[in-house]
Give the backbone structure.
Amino acid sequence: MKTPEFLPPLSVFGALIPQNNRPLMKAYIKWLLLLSKRGLNLKPSSDKIFNELYRAVHRNWSGKTTLGYLQQEFIKENLSLSLLLEPLQGFEWLSKNRYPLTFTGSSPIMLQIISPVARLIAALNHQHPPFYQPFANLICVYLGLYLQHMPELITLLEKARFSLNPNMPQSLPLLQNEAKQILSVTYNFLFKLRISFYLGLCQVLLQKKSHQKTNFLDYVNAILYGLWYIITIRGQKLPVHKL
């Protein structure tokens, strides 16, 4: 599935993962893709199949298998198996859905899938719990952007009675504003610089027209916007209820 020229290639997001953890992240994405085939009814799904998947997570597997490798890496990195189980639950709910869903209307299901991804990336970068929610919001905005401009994805999601909100272009900037809290709760200055770039890139993409290509200048603007935003929030601390 080809990424449209309006959007950056998915490889751009690889910098969010420490170099030594990228094989782990690749295996985790493979796990999510396996679950998505069941959740989106691209392969036959049933309660029995999902029950077998739940049991499989708790069994010991060879490191040569995707699940076995993930189990070994999770132990090494002190990660919870809930990061494997939560997306499984989310895709199970999606497979059983019998009613039309919109991007915002499906938020409880989407969070079951997006939240573990956000927590895994946070854990691999030694971030603290207040980082999770704004980072999950940022992931949601990027997901919305890719869905808007990749009809092939929508075609797949339609099998699970999923469609885009007519007002999605207006709702994504609001979600991105919530994601801006992320820099106030990000540890490690170098990682904060990386996050500021993705926050800036998100802002640039939201302001672009769909017929425009993403080019080098867009990335420069993203860096500058991120640096500016770091400076403006320097020393500020958010109230506890907003973290």
Observations:
- Residues 238-243 have pLDDT under 50 and may be disordered.
- The two ends are 36 Å apart (CA to CA).
- The first helix runs from residue 22 to 39.
